[in-house]
From TrEMBL:
This is FbpC C-terminal regulatory nucleotide binding domain-containing protein. The chain crosses the membrane at residues 48-69. The keyword Translocase does not apply. Keywords: Membrane, Transmembrane, Transmembrane helix. Pfam families: FbpC_C_terminal. InterPro entries: FbpC_C, Haem_d1_sf. Residues 127-177 form the FbpC C-terminal regulatory nucleotide binding domain.
Length: 342
């Protein structure tokens, strides 16, 4: 039989245990009780409460921002969004598509007379070629969908590249680079056929060209102010049939190379722009047989590559991770017959 003192000690112990449990598992009114206690104990130091409240408001705002930002779709340049790319599902229609799902995000613009599959992007600007009453012209589309026809006839409508505020296209046996009112032309020997163009943000130009009767092409690198073949650097590629498409990725030039001439595998190799030396071999992945001029290679700000062949398939190359991605199809079910681009 326990005496009165033992009973009081047991009750005190139980009370203390309950208090500990309340500290570990706060009740719904724990925060108001805690703040009330702080006010009673620290009433002469009210600035502390203000600071605590300000910190709580700031923390709440930070948490709200963290959860709100990923879902926002603010008007940002479509060409720099890491989750979308551009394609033309219908004649004259330029639309943005989600990379992983292939879903159409939005229609960016409708350009009358646009050349099929001729697209390029430079930060917040999109470029295409269109047939007008004054001949073939380069059309610039801004983020809001507004259009501006650039001065000067564009010549050959097969190729178009943009970067660093410049636009490049093929005009007969010359590659023309336009920036504002300045126009420079690099003559290409008649025996060479140009398969692809790429412009870096600093104005450097890459040209994929090969002999007319040969399937092998080379990557020629030019300084921003180049106006001839003199002084160009050639990328040292060991691909048996040569690259089939090129793009700039930061300071380096990338080339889509078939692993063998019979097709079945390709890879995205990277080269130093100043020396042409290969600095990244790329991971091989399965593709149909690729030929120069039929595939497009483009890069996004995250350093990922989009390999697009239109009807033959598309792949997202993210370092060593290769992911086949769906075709670019509109909500009406129309799928882009030509390659897309970041």
């Amino acid at each position: 039989m326990k005496d009165g003192n033992s009973t009081r000690e047991v009750d005190l112990l139980r009370m203390q245990l309950h208090q500990l449990v309340e500290d570990v598992e706060p009740r719904p009114d724990a925060l108001p009780r805690l703040l009330a206690g702080v006010r009673r104990r620290r009433s002469p130091r009210r600035p502390l409460i203000v600071l605590v409240g300000a910190a709580a408001v700031a923390a709440t705002a930070f948490v709200v921002a963290m959860f709100a930002l990923p879902g926002q779709h603010a008007p940002e340049p479509v060409s720099v969004r890491p989750d979308s790319y551009l394609a033309s599902p219908e004649p004259g229609v330029i639309a943005a598509f989600d990379v992983l799902s292939g879903r159409e995000d939005r229609e960016v613009a409708h350009v009358n007379g646009a050349e099929p599959g001729v697209l390029a992007a430079d930060n917040d600007r999109i470029y295409t070629m269109a047939s007008t009453v004054d001949g073939r012209r380069v059309v610039e589309v801004n983020p809001q969908g507004g259009q501006r026809v650039l001065p000067g006839e564009a010549g050959d409508g097969r190729l178009l590249a943009a970067g660093g505020g410049r636009v490049a296209y093929l005009d007969g046996n010359a590659v023309v680079v336009v920036r504002g009112e300045n126009r420079q032309a690099i003559a290409i020997p008649p025996g060479l056929r140009v398969h692809d163009l790429a412009l870096a943000d600093d104005g450097r130009l890459a040209v994929l060209a090969g002999e007319q009767d040969s399937s092998r092409a080379a990557v020629l690198l030019f300084a921003p102010d180049a106006n001839s073949l003199a002084g160009h650097v050639e990328a040292v590629t060991d691909a048996p049939c040569g690259p089939v498409a090129i793009a700039w990725s930061g300071p380096d030039v990338a080339a889509l190379e078939p692993v063998d001439c019979d097709g079945g595998q390709a890879r995205v190799a990277t080269f130093a722009a100043d020396t042409g030396r290969k600095i990244g071999a790329g991971v091989p992945f399965r593709t149909p047989r690729l030929t120069a001029g039929e595939a497009r290679l483009s890069a996004d700000p995250l350093g990922r590559f989009l390999v697009s062949t239109g009807k033959q398939g598309q792949w997202l190359v993210d370092g060593s991770v290769i992911r086949p991605i769906p075709p670019a199809c509109s909500g009406a079910g129309e799928c882009a017959p030509d390659p897309g681009t970041f």
